[in-house]
Amino acid sequence: MNAVAPTPDTYRSHRNLPPVAGLCSFTEAMQPGMGVERCVARLKRLHYAFKRLHEIWIARLTAEPVYELKMAFSLHAYYAAEHVSALAKRVGEMREPPLGLDAVPDPALEIFFDEIRAAPTTATLLVGIYEHALPALAAALARYRHDTNLLTDSPSVRVCRFAAAEVNDLLDYGRKAVPCLVNDALRQEQSPWLARLTELLTAAGELDGSQPPGPLPARLHSARPFVFDPKPRRDERFPDPYNMAVHAEVFLYDEKFAARDKTLMMLYKRLREIDVPEMMASIIRETPGKPWGYYLDMTRQLWDEARHAMIGEVGFVRLGLDWGQLVRVNFTWSLALNTQLGPRERHAVLYFIEQGLMPKTGKRYEWEVGRDSGDEFSALGQDFDWADEVLHARIGRDWFVNTFASAKDAVAYGDQHWSKILIDWKAYKAAGLTQHYNWWPELYRAACARWGQTPDPRALAYATSYEVARADLKKNSASAQTPCSPPNKSSSIATPAISASKTSSRRTRSRNCAV
Fold first, then answer.
1. What is the value of pTM for the model shown?
2. Residues of the chain under the 70 pLDDT cut
3. CATH number for the 248-460 domain, one of 3.40.50, 1.20.910, 1.10.20, 3.30.300?
C-alpha cells in the first residue's frame, strides 16, 4: 500500500508541534528569498545607516543646549552603536572577510546623512533624524525581513528584529519630541531641504538599495564641511554655568553632616554629570580609526553618565525641588577638557578619575551614605552608579591602559594632563561670567521643608567653594568667599566666552572623586 505523498498543505509536524522551530510556517520557509550576496549588500547598508546615525548623535550632543536632547542623544547613540556591532558580526559570518564595512555603499546615502548632520538648527536636526532617517531605516528593516528567507537567513532576521524594536522606540520618541520644537513655519521654511532629503533617498534606491536608483542631487547644508563644536552649551535652566561656589566633596566627606543632608549634595553631583557625555562625545568624535568595540564601549559609558545625571534630576523631582531654580549646575569641567586637551589627554583624565572611584572611600562610600540616610532612592541610585563605575574602570583598562607600557604609566599620564587644565575661579568672576553665588542654603532650606525637619545650622552655614579647596580636598591659598547675592536668572543659553581654567567639581586627584 503506497502512502500518499505530503504536500505543503497536508504535511503536519508531530502532533502539530510548531514547525521549523517556530521561526515560520512551512510555506514561508519554502519561499526563495534573497541569496547571500544580496543579503550582505542590504545588511551593509543597514550597518552604514546605524553607524552614521551614531556619528550624528555624538557630533551634535556637546553643543546641543537642551538637556533632555543631550540625554536622548546619549541613549540613541548607544542603541545605534549596539546595532552597528551586531550587523558587522552578522556580515562577517556570511563569507565576507574582508568585510568592507568602511566603504560608503552609495554616494546619495552619504550625502543624505551629511545633510542631516549639517542641519542648521536643533529643530531641523530632529526632523531630519526622526522623520526621515529613522522611518527610512525602519522600512528597510521591515523589507529585509519580508524579502529574505526566514529559515535560511534566520540569524540576520533575528538581528533585524532586535534592531527594529529599538528603532520603533526611537520613532516613538521622535513623534513626541518633534512637535515640541517644530512648527509649520519651520517646515515651510525648510521645505526645499526636506524635499532634498527625500530626493537623496530616492537617488539611493531607498536606504537599503532595494529600489531603482535615481539621479544624484546636489548638496545643500553639507556643501560646507562639517566642523565639530567642542564647546558645551546649556539651556535656560543652567543660567550660571561657571558657578563654582558650592564644593560638593568637602561637604560629602565632612563627618559632622548628616547622611540625609549629604544625599542632597549627591543629587547635585549626579545631575552635574551632564558634563561627562559632553566631554566623552568629543573624545569619540575626535578619535578615528579605532576598532568598533572602542566606540561601542565608550558610547555605553557616555550613556551611563547621562543616566547618572538623570538619576540626580529624578531625585530632585522626587523631593519636589525645582533644580533649575535652586541649583547652579556648571560646565567648567567639560569646557576645560574639550578646549584645552586633545582627545587622548581627555581620555587620560577620565581614566585617572575612574580609577579613583574604585577604593572603598569612592563609590562605595557614596552608596553607604545613601543607605545610611534611609532614603531608598538615594541608596538605589548610588548602588547602580557604583556598579557602572566599576564597568567604566574596566573600559579604561581595555582601551586606554593598553596603549601604555604599564597601568602605572597610564595613571601618571592622566595625572600629568589633569594638572595642565586651568579652571580659574577668579577669572570667571572677573570676566563677569559668574558671581559664584552660594545657592546651597536656599536648596537646603527647601529640602528641609519637604522633609519636615529643622535645618542643621552647621549645614545651613556651609559656604566652602572651589576657590578654597579643590575637588581632591587639597586646600588652595585663597580664603572662603563671602556668599553673593543671587545672579540675574534671565540669561538663556550659555555660550563660553573665555578659555576655561582648572579646578572642577568633577575633577579628582585622589580617593575623593567627583564623578
1. 0.90
2. 1-3, 469-515
3. 1.20.910
